[in-house]
Write a structure and sequence with these properties.
This is DNA binding ATP binding putative isoform 1. The chain has 10 helices and 14 strands. By secondary structure, the protein is α+β, with helices and mostly antiparallel strands. The chain has a domain at 1-210: Heat Shock Protein 90, CATH 3.30.565.
């Protein structure tokens, strides 16, 4: 097997005709990169959604057994790459690392190794994927499994292509330079991405990193730790609101009606404060068959909707901001006014801020939410039958008594109310409180 460096040289020689025979498909590559550039910069994506793309990628990665998957964002004003960038963002991930197939995929357009694998649990969407890094950097660097390469958005002088031509990195940065930013006494994770930021992206990146929501890990099955911090030689220059989030799942599951329930505990520590905030969530996950009339091309291989409802047992974790009520693996910006969180494989608007409310796939999911809620609520009530009355009143707090600003979600609320009347599981006076 070729060494990482030899593998990269082989790619540049055979695919991009650098020092080798002309590739008859080179013109196709030119057209593909032009299309990529047009798509990349026409997308309504601000950095917060871009940072979530990186979380998607980390969740889709593979991890060694016994490893607690983690993702770390570190922003520094040190120009460790020597590019003249005013700030650099480093992303550390303790995954297995890039394989040769991953490298070949990233040197292509539209050849994701995850494409068509929705049923296997991959959550990333087909689209710009990793190449969205070019929204904030002109030169992304990858250090993983012996590979140390960079890409540039400017056309390569040897083949005229940008974005997908790998270049082996010599000299800067040394591993010791990276360790200084990470933690000089710690072993570097397998994969490090280094993104020297474009000058006009430094403030947006800082602002959005400071807004990473503490509940971001709630519906991820792999990532257990996520942290954001800033590292400057003078700590007084740090302006990013640091946060470290961890999750722990109680895997004692109760199975019935094609559903499972479990508890997730989240803890978040902000700005180095030793006092952690904690909240546990009762989780109800139920599967429903996808109806023929709700199928869409982007999800043709998916046969079941998995809907998860999260019921917070304490005050929800937040960072002085409104708490999203709808997740599609990661948070949207939709505030529902419901005392529980809805998660499913929703199709998102291009901005990623909301789900597509007029989409038939999403409507099919929403039509099933009331059934999931009734089953979850019934399960919770049965769990507290022998508990003090105060525990039962806590269950009633999960009822969506307040109206939502979204008509589609109000329809869900009305369906829940109708089902509660039909099931006769709550007092009439409580039902009368539905506004």
């Amino acid at each position: 097997m070729a060494t990482p460096r030899k593998h990269v040289e082989q790619i540049t020689k055979t695919k991009f005709s650098i020092g080798g025979e002309p590739n008859p498909l080179i013109e196709d590559l030119h057209q593909a990169t032009k299309h990529l550039s047009a798509e990349l910069y026409s997308k309504d994506v601000h950095f917060f959604r871009y940072s979530l793309f990186l979380v998607y990628n980390a969740e889709d990665n593979e991890y060694l057994e016994g490893v607690d998957p983690s993702l770390e964002f570190v922003l520094t004003s040190r120009d460790i790459m020597g590019t003249g960038a005013p700030a650099t963002l480093l992303i550390f991930n303790n995954e297995k690392g890039f394989s040769s197939k991953n490298i070949e995929s990233i040197c292509s357009v539209g050849r994701s190794t995850k494409k068509g694998n929705r049923k296997r649990g991959y959550i990333g969407e087909k689209g710009i994927g990793f190449k969205s890094v070019f929204l904030i950097t002109a030169q992304p660097y990858i250090f993983s499994n012996g590979y140390q390469i960079r890409f540039t958005e400017n056309p390569c002088p040897h083949c005229g292509l940008g974005y997908i031509v790998p270049e082996w990195v010599e000299g800067n940065p040394s591993l010791s330079d990276i360790k200084k930013v990470y933690d000089s006494g710690a072993t570097l994770p397998t994969t490090t991405l280094i993104l020297p930021l474009k000058p006009d992206k430094v403030k947006p990146v800082k602002d959005q990193l400071s807004k990473v929501h503490p509940e971001v890990l709630l519906f991820l099955s792999k990532i257990k730790c996520l942290s954001v911090r800033e590292d400057n030689e003078d700590p007084r220059l740090n302006t990013v609101c640091a946060i470290a989030i961890t999750s722990e799942t109680n895997f004692v599951r109760r199975k019935n009606v094609d559903a499972e329930s479990y508890t997730i505990s989240l803890s978040a520590e902000e700005n180095g404060d030793n006092s952690e905030k904690e909240c546990s969530y009762y989780m109800w996950k139920q599967r429903f068959p996808v109806k023929e009339g709700n199928k869409v091309e982007r999800r043709m291989d998916v046969e079941e909707w998995a809907i998860t409802l999260a019921f917070p047992n304490q005050e929800r974790l937040n960072r002085g901001m409104s708490s999203p009520g709808v997740y599609a693996f990661l948070p949207t910006e939709m505030v529902t006014n419901f005392p529980f969180i809805i998660h499913a494989d929703f199709l998102l608007a291009s901005s990623g801020e909301t789900i597509l409310l007029g989409d038939k796939w999403n409507q099919g999911i929403l039509d099933c939410v009331s059934s999931a809620f009734i089953n979850a609520f019934t399960s919770l009530v049965k769990m507290t039958e022998d508990a003090p009355v105060s525990s039962l009143s806590r269950m009633l707090a999960f009822l969506p008594l307040n109206r939502s600003s979204y008509a589609n979600l109000n329809a869900v609320r009305e369906s829940i109310r109708a089902r509660l009347i039909e099931e006769s599981i709550v007092p009439v006076e409580v039902l009368e409180r539905f506004l």
